[in-house]
Design brief:
It contains eleven helices and nine strands. By secondary structure, it is an alpha/beta fold. The two termini are about 25 Å apart.
Length: about 210
């Protein structure tokens, strides 16, 4: 089964950005225990590639691990070599999509305008990341989806437990969640049970939507 099919089934990608190495494994375990099936480690996180490699082994059969903030083909190559099962970007770089296609790795590039969305789709992206969703808002998502509803769009930014159903109603195929899942204060306190409980609430909300 390809990663986009899993994305459309589970509808949530957890984003780990800037997490300390000593917290990463425990935080990842907490979210997996809460039912999160897709986790992204951003490439601008110190030690991102070793985390991806460890998690591929540690969570094999329970979760799928990808790399985020993949800005160009060189970063894509490094991420795939580390074991990334999918690639996510804040930008659209057709070379990254082409690299993923050659290796059977799904790429979900960052786009904003209708032109970028269609360019990404024509380049071979099976889904796109609408970003920055927090600034664009649900009304933008709803409007851009109207003529382009054949292209799955992941909303990243501005999604929380109170409005996640609204984003799905507006047409989001999935959502990307960073600090709402990987809460820095809970991490600092070592409150991993709260991370798990919170993740479970998001998973249940996505299931109801």
């Amino acid at each position: 089964m390809d990663m986009t099919t899993l994305l459309l089934r589970h509808r949530i990608v957890a984003i780990f950005r800037g997490i300390a190495a000593e917290q990463a494994d425990m935080a990842g375990q907490a979210l997996v225990d809460g039912g999160i099936a897709l986790m992204e480690v951003t490439m601008n996180t110190e030690g991102a590639l070793p985390i991806v490699s460890r998690w591929r082994e540690r969570f094999d059969g329970r979760a799928y691990i990808g790399a985020g903030t993949v800005l160009d083909e060189d970063m894509a190559r490094e991420a795939v070599a580390a074991g990334a099962q999918f690639l996510i970007s804040p930008n659209l770089d057709e070379a990254v999509i082409a690299y993923g296609l050659e290796r059977g790795v799904d790429v979900w590039p960052g786009v904003m305008t209708p032109t970028e969305i269609v360019r990404a789709w024509k380049a071979g992206a099976k889904a796109v990341k609408l970003f920055p969703m927090g600034a664009l808002g649900q009304s933008y998502l709803r409007e851009v989806r109207a003529p382009l509803n054949h292209i799955p769009m992941m909303a990243t930014g501005g999604v929380d437990l109170h409005n996640i159903a609204d984003f799905f109603a507006a047409g989001a195929a999935a959502v990307g969640l960073g600090s709402k899942l990987v809460n820095a204060e809970w991490l600092a306190r070592g409150d991993y049970e709260r991370l798990t409980d919170n993740a479970r609430q998001f998973v249940e909300a996505a299931g109801r939507a």
